[in-house]
Design goal:
Elements: H1 10-18, H2 22-34, H3 37-44, H4 48-62, E1 67-70, E2 73-76, H5 78-101, E3 109-114, H6 116-121, H7 123-133, E4 138-143, H8 146-155, E5 160-164, E6 178-186, E7 188-192, H9 206-209, E8 215-216, H10 222-233, E9 243-244, H11 248-256, E10 262-265, H12 266-274, E11 279-280, E12 290-297, H13 304-327
Parallel strand pairs: 3-4, 3-5, 8-9
Antiparallel strand pairs: 1-2, 5-12, 6-12, 7-10, 7-11
Helix pairs in contact: 2-3, 2-4, 2-5, 3-4, 7-13
Length: 330
């Protein structure tokens, strides 16, 4: 086997890579999925020797053994798995480019993965700013769990993520190749109906909160974990909810018409409060605030569409902070 590609100069790398075609890269993806050269040959409509040549070309180009063959077929070596990660991302970008090239719309598209609260409380202002400035940018929004969004980012299925990152939910090794830029702080707030008896001038204690009925997010969620940690930190057992629901929209709607309490992102509580449907309780011990982040792959951080969207988000935050400063008493 020739020298690993990391150990040679660019003059040697380029000729190696020129031997590769898109079919070589798709073959590697297929091999990971099917686990057999014979199955890959069938899927690609090639002969067995032709598929073996694809593998030989790949291993020569990358200067490493990418596949370990055994009686059951073939599996990727650690080097092969690393190459596959990059290949998967590149092919996804190529597929997206082909779709854009075939579209009548000339605006570049940015595929944004986000938490539901971002779609509700943040993106409307960002899109409003883009329209107001006449920026030629098309946005595709995808909602999913943070873990799934990070995986889609690595796969190249989306271009960036706007989410709260938590080491308990996203392993550090999955963040190593990513650019992470903090956007704003979004805490959690306790919401109640406008006529709830706990509303008043005095800050509400956790002991008082325990006397109330609750609608809370499921235990596996970060919101529920923060709530429980907050009570345990005060030496109290967390409340057992009357209702469990993973939708903060549903929870706030229930609170608006009952004596129930709920915990939701501060930005969502603020918007519902502005509409007059709920109010935020003033707590003696506020709940933990977290950073909402813009996350993208290092390989595409400098691309014009991603930079344009990031600038639009930062500008939206700056405008919101300026408005809050004007409204605040001096």
């Amino acid at each position: 086997m020739v020298d690993p590609i990391d150990s040679v100069g660019v003059d040697e790398i380029i000729p190696r890579l020129r031997r590769l075609r898109i079919q070589h890269l798709r073959f590697l993806v297929l091999l990971e999925q099917l686990g057999s050269l014979t199955a890959c040959a069938k899927a690609l409509h090639l002969s067995q020797p032709a598929v073996s040549n694809l593998l030989k070309d790949l291993e020569t180009a990358f200067g490493a053994t990418l596949v370990e063959r055994d009686a059951r077929g073939g599996r990727l070596t650690p080097a092969g798995a690393r190459v596959l990660t990059r290949v998967t991302h590149s092919l996804a970008w190529l597929d997206a480019a082909l779709q854009e090239a075939g579209s009548a719309d000339t605006r570049p598209t940015v595929r944004v993965g986000l938490m539901p609260i971002v779609a509700y409380a943040f993106m409307p202002d960002v899109v409003h700013g883009l329209l107001k400035r006449g920026e030629a940018l098309q946005i595709s929004l995808i909602e999913a769990t943070v873990q799934r969004l990070i995986e889609q980012l690595h796969e190249g299925a989306i271009d960036c993520v706007v989410a709260i990152l938590d080491s308990a939910r996203v392993p550090a090794d999955r963040l190593a190749d990513l650019m992470i830029a903090p956007l704003y702080q979004d805490g959690l707030a306790v919401a109640c109906a406008p006529e709830h008896p706990l509303l008043g001038a005095a800050p509400v204690t956790h002991a008082e909160l325990l006397q109330q009925a609750w609608v809370l997010a499921p235990q596996a969620t970060r919101t529920r974990q923060v709530v429980e940690a907050s009570f345990l930190g005060q030496g109290l057992l967390p409340p057992a909810p009357l209702v469990e629901s993973g939708s903060f929209h549903a929870n706030l709607a229930m609170v608006a018409h009952t004596r129930l309490l709920t915990v939701a992102p501060s930005s969502a509580v603020h918007r519902y409060s502005t509409a007059g449907s709920v109010r935020e309780l003033h707590l003696a011990q506020p709940l933990l605030a977290s950073s909402m982040n813009f996350v993208t792959h290092r390989d595409i951080w400098e691309t014009a569409p991603v930079q344009a969207l990031y600038r639009a988000m930062v500008l939206s935050i700056d405008n919101a902070n300026a408005e809050m400063s004007l409204k605040s008493p001096h």
